[in-house]
Amino acid sequence: MKSGWVDSEARAAIDHYARDGISRDLALRVYTTRLLGRDPKLVLHGGGNTSLKTTMPDLLGEEVAVLCVKGSGSDMAAIEPAGLPAVRLDRLRKLRARADLSDEDLLRIQRASLLEPTAPNPSVEILLHAFLPHKFIDHTHANAILSIVDQPDGEAICAGLYDGRVSLVPYVMPGFGLAKTAADIYEAKPEVEGLILNKHGIFTFGASARESYERMIALVALAEERLQKNRKAVFVTAQLPQAIASVDAVAPILRGACSRKDEKIEGAWRRMILEFRTSPAILNFVNGAELARYGQAGVVTPDHTIRTKNWPLITIAPARDRMDDFKRAAQAAVTDFCERYQAYFARENARAGGIKRPLDPLPRVALVPGLGLFGLGRSKEDAKIAADLAQCAVEVVTDAEAIGCFESISEAEMFDMEYWPLEQAKLGSAAQKPLAGEIAVITGGGGTIGRATAKAFAAAGAEVALLDCDERAAADAAKAIGAAALAVKCDVTDGACVRDAFARVVAAFGGVDIVVSNAGAAWQGRIGEVDEDVLRQSFELNFYGHQRVAQAAVKIMLAQGTGGCLLFNVSKQAVNPGPNFGPYGLPKAATLFLVRQYAVDYGADGIRANAVNADRIRSGLLTDAFIAERSKARGVSEKDYLSGNLLGREVTADDVAQAFLHQALELKTTGDVTTVDGGNIAAALR
Ligand SMILES: [Zn+2]
Q1: What is the Cα–Cα distance from 442 to 492, expressed in whole angstroms?
Q2: Is residue 419 flagged as an active site residue?
Q3: What pLDDT does 618 receive?
Q4: In this structure, are residues 516 and 278 in contact, taking their beta carbons and an 8 Å threshold?
Q5: 51, 68 contact by CB (below 8 A)
Q6: Strands (E), 22-118
Q7: What's the confidence (pLDDT) of residue 579?
Q8: Ligand 1 center from residue 175 Cα (angstroms)
Q9: Residue 282 alpha carbon to ligand 1 centre in Å
Q10: In 460-561, which residue ranges form alpha helices assigned H by DSSP?
Q11: Is the model's pLDDT at 430 over the cut of 70?
């Protein structure tokens, strides 16, 4: 590990922030905080924090001594000065004289001492920063340090390695107690460059931003060097099946096993999104014969526990030709995991006085020998964070085992951290959206209706994949929705292409819950004279396209075992033929019947099938030029042409999207056709 400090960049940061009246010290504090934040071997996802002691004017213009400390849970790589809220230092320091301090009191004192009342909550490690005297303080959970302190003799290794340059702090849970202990230990030997916290991480400090930052880099680099010496080969590989199943075969089974029925709403499930990772290092770890020991030994640093839980789920290796065995074993492993978690909660909650409410017992990380690891979360973002932390744990534990034996904090210490309200507060309390944890695939996703539908489903909390034969259109639509939306090139008239596209969706999210089969195109011709090829072409897209998509989805839904929802875009042509529109209407009529067939054949599996009957939507099918031509031919305005229905209202792609969304949410509705046409009595179904 090398210092990332560059003089010209530091000067640029000073100049940049000076324009907003930010001091040189705070500008450099932001600069080195970002340097730490951009290295995943030092900090990940809100872990770690930094501070600066300085003076600032309060709201009345009076200069006061403050501690600018990173906001709780915020990302160091992208921090701005406002992300380091200023707190009155004298008030924080007075707290050191207390014998104890409740979380509630700390939070209230902290908020009442902020210079800016609307600032974010400061880091949970604020008091440690306040009680140490240094102008600049840096704290990370550096992987190399963790590999050394997460050992039974971690303190002894550190003592030998650092030769008096650091003091060692025994494990104490973060908060008031740790802050007091660390300050006492520091004061016994004030010449040290930093503190190493057993089973937790490292603090360095200095008179300048650069000194504190470069001490961090130097001390971590020493740990990295130590890890390269006297290594033993890890791990001894277990016996594995010859042929391992692919990610897209494993993920839906795992996802299904990790889903739970909603106890309050019949037919509803609480589902997870998956993020898959693999690499030679991950495979070496998950394939080890002793995985059950080192893989279940606990977190590498305490603040991972809220994201990963204390242990991962471990499954058997999935043999390609024995997926039924894998399914049974995965379900049993998840049941065992939940029972173990519930027993842990009951035991530790009794110790804590029975005051805590249990969190859900499902795993957040799954290790699959032969394949890799999965992060699990209620959103793609949460799943990615869990996977990042799991990957970090693989590195830390591997290195710890290479020079000794990995050891974590005790069960009681893990519980105190996992159920610490200040830690849980980092996860936020965002209201659950109705489709949170669900994965929706939209075909024709690059078109007007597909785009609007994907947007509506994403807004309702679903992860969305947009399939389109026009890759660029799908990518543009996905980009407009957000970072997590997936675009996949898919021609629904090609069976292999459909299977590949669904495999990609499964690899990206872990499965499929909702399909909006929307891709279509119009062919015309007077039915008695039309070329048979034209009819067949239309059937390929407007009937078989829907069938291929539905079939691929059902296979995945059955593997998950948590039901599902198939939604079809069926035109009003299916029930109300227009002149010379037979080549379009006939396959659509067959698709209407297809909806009912899926409803009949898969109702017992909890898979619902519904259709939307839309008419006259401005889209790729009904282009502006076509609308102009048709309205002119009828001698009416475009507006009158589009709103020529019983309600006299123009129907839009957003109206169709809302109809699909309602069908996805109507858990007791299958075999339904919802009409979205402003009223067309000739196309009414009954
Ligand atoms: Zn920490």
Answers
A1: 12
A2: no
A3: 82
A4: no
A5: yes
A6: 49-57, 63-69, 86-88
A7: 87
A8: 10
A9: 25
A10: 471-481, 495-509, 532-539, 545-560
A11: no
Expressed in angstroms and rounded, the spacing between residue 420 Cα and the centre of ligand 1 is 14
What's the number of CA atoms in the CB half-sphere (13 Å) around residue 455?
18
Of 618, 608, 615, give the one whose Cα is nearest residue 452: 618
pLDDT in tens, 225-266: 999 999 999 999 999 999 999 999 999 999 999 999 998 999
SS3 string of 657-677? HHHHHHHHHCCCCCCCEEEEC
Tokens of 414: 């893990």
d(CA 654, CA 660): 10
Q: Which residues surround ligand 1, an ion (CB under 5 A)?
A: 201
Ligand 1 center to residue 347 CA distance, Å?
26
Q: Chain-centre distance of CA 163, in angstroms?
A: 42
**3-state SS of 375-444?**
EEECCHHHHHHHHHHHHHHHHHHHHHHHHCCCCCCCHHHHHHHHCCHHHHHHHCCCCCCCCCCCEEEEEC
Q: How far is the CA of 675 from the centre of ligand 1 (A)?
A: 56
Separation of 137 CA from ligand 1 center, angstroms? 12
Average pLDDT for residues 444-461, to the nearest whole number?
Answer: 96
Catalytic hit among 17, 213, 584, 598: 584
- Give residue-wise pLDDT tens across range 360-395: 999 999 999 999 999 999 999 999 999 999 999 999
Q: How far is the CA of 635 from the centre of ligand 1 (A)?
A: 73
Q: Give the C-alpha separation, 622 to 620, whole Å.
A: 6
Strands (E), 332-371: 365-368
Is the overall model pTM greater than 0.85, yes or no? yes
Which tokens in the block code for residue 195? 């503190």
Q: Which residues, other chains included, contact 264 with Cβ-Cβ below 8 Å and sequence gap of 6+? A: none
Q: 489 and 505 in contact (C-beta within 8 Å)? A: no
The answer for residues whose C-beta is within 8 angstroms of residue 47's C-beta and 6 or more apart is 140, 141, 301, 303, 304
pLDDT at 573: 87
